[in-house]
Amino acid sequence: MKHIDNAPSTPGKFKIEKSPYNRLRLHSSLAKLTFWSLVFLGLIFVFFYRSPSSSSPLPSDPSRRSLSSSSYGGPNFEKRVRASAKIRSRNGISVLVTGAAGFVGTHVSAALKRRGDGVLGLDNFNDYYDPSLKRARQALLERTGVYIVEGDINDVSLLKKLFDIAPFTHVMHLAAQAGVRYAMENPSSYVHSNIAGLVSLLEVCKNANPQPAIVWASSSSVYGLNTKVPFSERDKTDQPASLYAATKKAGEEIAHTYNHIYGLSLTGLRFFTVYGPWGRPDMAYFFFTRDILKGKSIPIFEAANHGTVARDFTYIDDIVKGCLAALDTAEKSTGSGGKKKGPAQLRVFNLGNTSPVPVSDLVSILERLLKVKAKRLVMKLPRNGDVQFTHANISLAQRELGYKPTTDLQMGLKKFVRWYLSYYGNGKKSAQ
Ligand SMILES: O=C(O)[C@H]1O[C@H](OP(=O)(O)OP(=O)(O)OC[C@H]2O[C@@H](n3ccc(=O)[nH]c3=O)[C@H](O)[C@@H]2O)[C@H](O)[C@@H](O)[C@H]1O
């Protein structure tokens, strides 16, 4: 390094001297300079190629979120992937869970692991909301033996590599750009994750041998401006009210295509406003809790003419049961080598609670649980993609999956608040 420090900083500072001795010295200096420059460049090259991309915070630009698959590999990586994906129970399944550091992904991964299934997580740890919460979920899963590979669903070569190492029987696809209102701020992130990401995952699944069965997260938002309640899977879903909803609806159509052409077994689950411990800080119940504790006012939306805005809030444990039942009842894909060999299963289910609750009642329950009066700021429902109400008809899921939600909002929020206060230290530390 000393030689580099001593080297002239600009070529103009070189003085060409005429004597053979000086020429020799010059040649020798040039050789040394070239040698140490190469060593230096080599070190820079090694540093950039070997250092894990995770050491730097992920950029928020979704097109730059994908991590290079060249940074994955080696015997240690493969060993971890294999161990995590290994089935440890009779009749168990091996599941690739995308979005495993997310809210639903963490709970589903833990539940699968608990019953002896093989589980490998995949997550890009993006900064849509506080990544430290995702890291805490990751630590939780690691303790149960679930390894989360840090990578993006758009990284086809990484996905292929994972399928080469562990021939998954199932994929639980939960990685997505969530949030209804954020779609107006960052539309391209929805296209990147919910459309392009889904397609790259399905491309890899269709070529895998054997093809896995896929269960994935659609959304109640596909019902959009529907006014007929409760929402049934047979209802039309051609009036999405947000880009988020439109990308989830597009996902359902893309699923149809891959089922039709390649024989992939696909099950879409329309989740209805899922809440609970380890939840998402961008959701109303979560940031209402934070802001009530801080004494900040909370905006409560109401529809025209003081119309009630309501949601069919669904507790996470009920959703997990629905996800596991969907995996357990999924039939095998029928294709192989990218070719369809026969008709394959294609399903869509509502996973809701079937009892919509007005947002103002949600706030009242939180006030009681937190023992703090909320500063309510009632305002007109902004035109930002929100719909006035959601209400699931779950008879199909009941019949086919044995799905039966058991936790009402009162009980579910009690569990959430208990977790919130323990995680954020009785409100002293608070969610971002
Ligand atoms: O079922 C889904 O598929 C979606 O569920 C969730 O969306 P939503 O049902 O809109 O939940 P969430 O934002 O918690 O707002 C809850 C209520 O509070 C109202 N709300 C919201 C914000 C606010 O400031 N004030 C307010 O009254 C608001 O009008 C609404 O009535 C997921 O975020 C989404 O990713 C997707 O999975």
From TrEMBL:
Record's keyword terms, sorted: Isomerase, Membrane, NAD, Transmembrane, Transmembrane helix
Ranges where the NAD-dependent epimerase/dehydratase domain occurs: 95-332
Positions of region (Disordered): 54-73
Repeat keyword on record: no
Origin: domain of life: Eukaryota
Transmembrane segments: 30-49
InterPro entries: Epimerase_deHydtase (IPR001509), NAD(P)-bd_dom_sf (IPR036291)
Similarity comment: Belongs to the NAD(P)-dependent epimerase/dehydratase family.
Protein name: NAD-dependent epimerase/dehydratase domain-containing protein
